[in-house]
Design brief:
The chain is α+β, with helices and mostly antiparallel strands and 118 residues long. 35% of the residues lie in helices and 26% in strands.
């Protein structure tokens, strides 16, 4: 089975999931040491997501700019398409290893976003 790494980073509207919104998920897919795909997906927060001013300042977006971003369902489908191109979701042995600078933070926010996306 090839080694599959998913380098990932998220931008959020706050520190704590599930209350904060995920607005960006970006990453690189690497298989057996070769970069095979990059992605950079932006989406607006879900209604009711907390929008922390310090987090918005950090990502450089206003509330109004976030409202203009694509629907989270579209970004979710795009991320699923990336994953489906490289992993057979029905084969338990065919999975990615997630690599992130702050993996617990990114993992927590991705899981909360995944649930919100249904």
């Amino acid at each position: 089975m090839p080694e599959k790494l998913l380098f990932i980073d998220t931008e959020t509207t706050g520190l704590f999931a599930p209350g904060a919104g995920l607005v960006q998920v970006a990453g690189i897919v690497e298989i057996d040491g070769q970069e095979v795909e990059e992605f950079n997906l932006w989406c607006r927060p879900f209604p009711g997501d907390l929008l922390n001013k310090e987090a918005l300042d950090l990502i450089g977006y206003t509330r109004e700019q976030l409202a203009e971003l694509p629907d989270p369902a579209d970004a979710f489908r795009e991320l699923l398409d990336v994953l489906d191109r490289h992993v057979n979701r029905y084969d338990k042995a065919d999975k990615f290893f997630m690599v992130a600078y702050n993996a617990p933070f990114d993992n927590e926010h991705l899981r909360a976003w995944w649930k919100k996306c249904g």
